[in-house]
Specification:
- This protein is about 5% helix and about 40% strand.
- By secondary structure, the chain is mainly β.
- It folds into two domains: about 80 residues, Chitinase A, domain 3; about 50 residues, Thrombin, subunit H, CATH 2.40.10.330.
- It is elongated and about 65 Å long.
């Protein structure tokens, strides 16, 4: 293992996977090209970055990232009931369907259909991984200094 240690501002190349406690893999690049980024540049959640600090080049570890350090807790205020008439009459709704909405600034805001009937649709605007513990498996391929 190398003497190069991950620190704030390090240029990193990593293989990683994100999985849920039940073993479901959310994302992985272990069978693909590794990701390269600068620690602290905002490309990765701080909760994941904190796990990397102090790791050495060549090291592989697994960490549990709790919701408050990952994708946040699920917020019941982010579940909205919307009149069915706000959706196109011919739109086929289904539980789990992701629908794009525009927020007040006209930015895209995805929501997941949780339930619906002829009068109303329940839409969850929480991040799909909110409230979940994430198993972060990471291998530091290389550590470089900030460019």
């Amino acid at each position: 293992m190398s003497d190069k240690v991950v620190a704030e501002g390090s240029q990193l190349t990593i293989h990683f996977s994100l999985a849920l406690r039940d073993g479901s893999v959310i994302d992985s690049n272990f069978d693909a090209k590794p990701a390269t980024f600068t620690l602290g540049d905002g490309n990765m959640l701080q909760g994941f970055e904190r796990c990397l600090i102090g790791m050495r080049e060549g090291q592989r570890e697994s960490f549990v990232v709790l919701p408050e350090h990952g994708f946040g807790q699920s917020n019941p205020n982010n579940v909205q009931i919307i009149p069915r008439t706000a959706f196109a009459a011919d739109m086929a709704l289904a539980e789990g369907l992701v629908v794009s909405f525009a927020d007040a600034q006209k930015a895209e805001l995805p929501g997941v259909i949780k339930a619906f009937n002829v009068d109303q649709v329940t839409v969850d605007f929480n991040h799909p991984l909110a409230g979940q513990d994430i198993i972060f498996d990471v291998q530091v391929v290389s550590v470089g200094s900030e460019t």
